[in-house]
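Protocol step 4 of 5: obtain the predicted structure for the target chain.
Materials: sequence only (see below). No template structures provided, no constraints applied. The aim of this step is simply to have a reference model before the mutagenesis design in step 5. Sequence pasted as it appears in the construct record:
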Amino acid sequence: MAVRCLGVGRLGGPAFGADEPVVEVLGSRVSSMEDLPAMVHRVTSDDIRRSGARNLQEVLDLLPGVNGLVSGAGMAQSKGISVRGMTTEVLLLVDGVPFMTSSYGTGAVLGAPFDLRTVPLSSIERVEVLKGASSALYGSHGLGGVINVVTRKGAAPAGFSLTGGSDGYLSGTVWASGGDRVTATVRYSREEEGQRRIRRRTNGLYDRSDDYRANHYGLDLKGDGWTFKASLGDYSSRWTYDGDLNRQENDYGRYVLELPVPGDLSLKAYYGSNFKRVFDSSGRSEYQDSNLGLALDGRGRWGSNPLAYGIEFRRDSSDYRNFENPWGNNDPYDLKRDGLSLYGETSFPLGELTGLLGLRYERWDVERGDDYSELNPKVSLSYEDPSGRLWYLSAGRAFVMPSFFQIYMPMRSWGIPNYQLRPEKGWSYEAGVRSAAGWSFNLFYTDLDDRIAYQSDPITWIGQYVNLERYRAYGVEAEWVLRLSEGLTYRQGLSWAYGEERASGQWTRSGDPRWKSVSTLEWTRGPWRASVTGRFYGDRAIRDNTNHYSEEDIFLVDLNLSRSLGEMELTLGGRNVFGREFFVDRSGYVTPERTWYLTLSGRI
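Step 4 output (structure tokens):
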């Protein structure tokens, strides 16, 4: 029997993704996700193209246990996700390094620590998603899950993609590569969207997204053992709120340099920034967030066992300003925190079992807040049976640092600071099996202390971010693929999750749907390909539903029809083709309207 050890794993045929061996150190993290005994979702650029998704949020929404409808809870329509009922407890990595902001609230309504619109689909080589216990070793925000986006490397052929659709939707991408000893790849993407409904008020009228404009630029350089990647762009949103026109402007940048170091080491330096300007009834608010880091990763042996290890330094900075506020400008802040992390992971045989042990220590020095240190272990046992099925049992501890916005609460007209706000911390447990035949099944349980939430006085509306007593979630997730006939494939993802949090001794159910099902039937014959996808979200409970919006189950249908034209491909697609409207939350946000689009893509 083969014993699975760190560095020689692969993903066993998920329902939405590819089955290819990948071995790499994930920047400042320690092991390839595909080596881990867990339900790992791996989505390739080809999967994305075939899905018909227009942004990364729509891609992730196809995975069990991931809810991509949360963008309906924000007027600027930022793209976030919820994993097992958690939003701010999810870590976004781009090329293995964190790209997170430090100015966010809690939950979908008040914001997430990242906006997936900063990662255009045209730049993605693959996306890896890891949830729960195995994500614990990835540091702060990794408790709920980790999304690792791997962008395209050099040597890609020149190509283009053009899309036009209803509601004024337009997008275009062009890229080209060249060079010999040093390969350079450049990319440019443009996206536009016209007016559409985003929120229905109690009087029956709609708040609307007026328009959306985005530009994305990319440069990749690849030399002898080293790589440099730069991604930057801008995007803007305009919307109506009770008849008033508001807008938001965003600029972002990501820069990563990776160098080989003697001794089987890799050095990675990175810098990320996100500048957001919001123009609404409170004047002009500006949020400037940045992450600066340096990570040294290595691989070696601990006796006869493989070992991955590393050290990382990271500085998070956050700057907030408010101008021309008719009720008086909010208090500004300019804050920093420095984090130092040490981590290691090894796998070893235990008879016919394989053990995996990881440990991560983090120390954070926080300006105007309590300093914090945490030692997070992770342990797994796995067994690969003679038929190739991998059985596993895992447990991991993780934590989530509060944001500067949550600590300082600059909106003095309705909030006060909490300098003693504690990080969230807890354990996640997993048990499951995955098969190279194309199916997997997983049980999970998460128990979290000191979950951060905003609480306010119902009369004065003055509140602050506080630590709740506890959050827990448990459930099941499954995926499988059925080859019905030659050219006809059925893919199914299914999850059931129950989450609840306790405050003042009372338990309250999470607002996420308990059931989620994603079913795709795909047909391929010669140059033709067609697919139909049904997305079901059931047994919902809209929290604090004072306006009595309907909590009915959500069912949306998407269609795609493609034909290969040699080096070109023409695709006709539709999202929510039956035009069904459902309420997403207690504020009246609705599911996206029906959209048709036509895409022509190919090589130049």
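Step 4 remarks: DSSP finds four helices and 33 strands in the chain. The helical segments are 45-51, 56-60, 107-110, 404-408.
Proceed to step 5.
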